[in-house]
Design brief:
mainly alpha; about 0% strand; 2 domains; flat; about 200 residues
Length: about 200
């Protein structure tokens, strides 16, 4: 990874496409914590944790702007139609999630674009109700920058802490790989089972 790929991946993560920031920022910070990592922006690896957080936050803002702009352009009816579509379900969207994000925004107001960035399940979608309500764009950018910055800082710190446990991670790397594969398998089975049950009920 480099700063450009971190920005691109975090843009995807912050849009409606399901992609966890946990697989971007912590590994990048883990590598950056190594004194032997490259020191230039164009190198094979990022070297500065502060810049990782900055570029990750820029990416998060770009993704949020995409959601904000699409919401204004498409409108509420089309947004919900997409959420209810098969493509929307493939993006792990649902009417329940969208209504939850919209209710959170309506309840907490503009500051929800800041607080919502710190809440799993809300953080990627909070930009949509902000766009639907035509929240002031400057305030939207400010709150999004602050919320995403804090979130990415926390993830970067976790990456640095993990680097401090590098020997332990290397010792149990096989077990960790197996555990990750098992968790991914369980997630896939759960998703398929949920889809089958939902189709059967319909």
């Amino acid at each position: 990874m480099n700063y450009g790929s971190i920005t691109a991946l975090m843009t995807i993560e912050s849009s409606f496409i399901p992609f966890p920031s946990e697989v971007v920022i912590p590994p990048a910070a883990y590598v950056a914590a190594d004194p032997g990592s490259a020191v230039c922006v164009t190198g094979s690896y990022p070297a500065d944790v502060a810049l990782i957080v900055l570029f990750g936050t820029i990416g998060a803002m770009l993704g949020a702007i995409i959601n904000y702009g699409l919401s204004i352009w498409l409108g509420r009816a089309i947004i919900y139609r997409f959420v209810d579509s098969k493509l929307g379900h493939l993006c792990l969207l649902s009417r329940e999630k969208m209504e939850k994000a919209e209710a959170y925004f309506n309840e907490h107001g503009k500051v929800s674009t800041f607080v919502g960035r710190l809440i799993p399940g809300i953080r990627q979608l909070i930009s949509i109700p902000a766009g639907l309500s035509r929240m002031h764009f400057g305030q939207f950018l400010l709150y999004t920058f602050l919320g995403a910055g804090i979130w990415n800082t926390v993830l970067a710190v976790l990456g640095i802490i993990a680097h401090g446990q590098a020997d332990l991670i290397n010792q149990y790397s096989h077990e960790l790989s197996v555990a990750i594969l098992v968790l991914l398998g369980v997630a896939v089975v759960y998703f398929i089972a949920k889809r089958v049950i939902s189709s059967t009920r319909k």
